[in-house]
Amino acid sequence: MLSIYNTLTGKKERFESLAPKIVKMYVCGVTVYDYCHIGHARSALVFDVIRRYLEFSGYQVEFVKNFTDVDDKIIKRANEQGVSCETITAKFIDAYDTDMGRLGIKRATREPKATEHMAEIIELVDRLMQKGLAYEVAGDVYFQVDKYQAYGRLSKRNLEDLQAGARVEVDARKRYPMDFALWKSSKPGEPSWESPWGPGRPGWHIECSAMSIKHLGETFDIHGGGMDLIFPHHENEIAQSCGATGKEFARYWIHNGFVQINQEKMSKSLGNFFTIREIFEKSQWPEAETGEMLRYFLLATHYRGPVDFSDQALRETKQALDGFYDLFNRLAEPGQGSAETDVELHYSIGWFEERFKMGMDDDLNTPSALAELQQLKNDVNKLLGQGLSTEARKIAREEFRSLGNILGLFQLDAWRFSERRAMVSQAEFEVPDIDVQLIDAKLVERNEARKQKDFKKADEIRRFLSSHGIVIEDKPDGTSRWKR
RNA sequence: GGCGCCGUACCCAAGUGGUUAAGGGAGCAGUCUGCAAAACUGCGAUGCAGCGGUUCGACCCCGCUCGGCGCCUCCA
């Protein structure tokens, strides 16, 4: 039974879906005017894991993640580059799909775009006008916050506090300083749509209300995004949505913490952010391995806390993952077992699953779940030392694959290992392209030499393979396995 | 000014009002090995920023102090 921290109530709550066995969740995607950074990756990943875990727990998940493709920043970017907004948005939606795909983020069941929901947006604004919660000034429409009683409920602030801390000049046309735009009249050259208030475009928050209501209904289960969206974005969404429908909007509000660099939030002004593609490009590891490293790294910290990104952290993550794939390699080899080890394996797996779920159920404690995975790895390693049958090995590997899948880990059949204590100097190291047949032939040759006690030759061969990035591990039976 | 977060071993990071404070990385010692690698075993916080308080008992609750950070403007 999943418990999850609800920003709305400030407490961990037992999760209960509105409809049995169906979860409807909406997550704020991105405004598509630039490449995504690791912060976006974390957010996408957290909700990807929530979705996977809910599915694992037997729910059908209707998962909507939007693209905001009409916005000031997009217009600005388009003008800077002298291209249309569509050029910009198409480019970065495509980039989003590529980047998130490399991280193994599953596609949402629906990925709506704001520009494709103008009718719904206008209708929603109109409803707010008719209810007297919004007003028009020269083609702009504002939501009047003091007409909505519960304003500030999500972010735990009141209008007075907000006003006192306002750092921005108040638009004189607003009736109340905190009023926010639902509809903006368009200036020449800007994208615009016909509306009862003249040609214009939607304000920032209204598109999420319109799209979530359209695709999930007026009341749904989960709404999520980064912590920075709590105010004003989600606060405003609640005001608009509840104001228009008179019903409860989302029931559980989930927010992930930031990715930081040296204890500070990543931001463009500090210039301390990393884009996802930058990390993949700079990585010395293949794409699949890099993606899994990033996932593991991000999931090794609880989703609500801050996580500090660094090269060192990523290196440590690689070492941790190597341990799993090392085990998987050995599990892929045939072996002899006993009734006792088979039984112990089942016992260990059973215990593990319980602990794993316990962690995940406790507000998605992925660090704890990973620790349990590590524990299982240790158990299986010990059993392997005692002897495990081929069948038992398959079962063990499958366990890692199936539960790992909830975190999007351990799905790979091949894995590039870190270089261990190098047998050769950097200068001797050659491009690690050597074909498998040659490796196997060299291993046979080497083991023949070992049998003859010609260790000089054996070491030469190892040295040769090592220079091609191949690491040899000798098995007790006189044969060897290798890995890159 | 308002709201809020963080401070656990060399590094990362869970966790609990009371048995041995998870796990990973690094390190050291050992087993195994021709040598390695991998794996396994052992070592490693007498303490959970500091000081008070509540309590039979606190790292975990409360208060204060110190240090770091976030939001209140666009932001995952």
Label the overall shape: elongated
How many E strands?
A: 15
Q: Spans of 5+ residues with little confidence (pLDDT < 50)? A: none
Helix count from the secondary structure assignment: 15
Radius of gyration in whole Å, from Cα?
Answer: 27 Å
Which percent bin holds the helix content?
40-55%
For the termini, the CA-CA separation is 42 Å
Structural class: alpha/beta
CATH superfamily of the largest domain: HUPs
CATH-derived topology of the largest domain: Rossmann fold
Give the averaged pLDDT, no decimals. 92
Query: Largest sheet at a glance?
Result: 4 strands, parallel
Percent of sequence in beta strands:
15-25%
Give the second-level CATH assignment, the architecture of the largest domain.
3-Layer(aba) Sandwich
What's the structural domain tally?
A: 3
Please write the CATH class name of the largest domain.
Answer: Alpha Beta
Cross-sheet strand order for the largest sheet: 4-3-9-10
Order of helices and strands: EEEHEHHHEEHEEHEHEEEHHEHHHHHHEE
Structure notes:
The protein is of the alpha/beta class. The chain has three domains: 3-261, Rossmann fold; 311-407, Anticodon-binding domain of a subclass of class I aminoacyl-tRNA synthetases (Four Helix Bundle (Hemerythrin (Met), subunit A)); 426-483, no CATH class. Helices cover 46% and strands 15% of the residues. It contains 15 helices and 15 strands. The chain has helices at residues 38-56, 72-81, 85-102, 118-130, 159-164, 206-216, 230-245, 276-282, 287-299, 311-331, 339-361, 366-386, 390-407, 436-451, 455-467; strands at residues 3-6, 11-14, 22-31, 60-68, 134-137, 140-143, 180-185, 200-202, 220-226, 250-256, 259-261, 264-265, 307-308, 471-474, 480-483. The strands form five sheets. A four-stranded parallel sheet has the order 4-3-9-10, sandwiched between helices. Helix 7 (230-245) links the parallel strand 9 (220-226) and strand 10. Helix 4 (118-130) crosses helix 7. It is elongated and about 95 Å long. It starts with a strand and ends with a strand. The mean pLDDT is 92. The protein binds one RNA strand of 76 nucleotides through strand 3, helix 1, helix 5, helix 7 and strand 12.
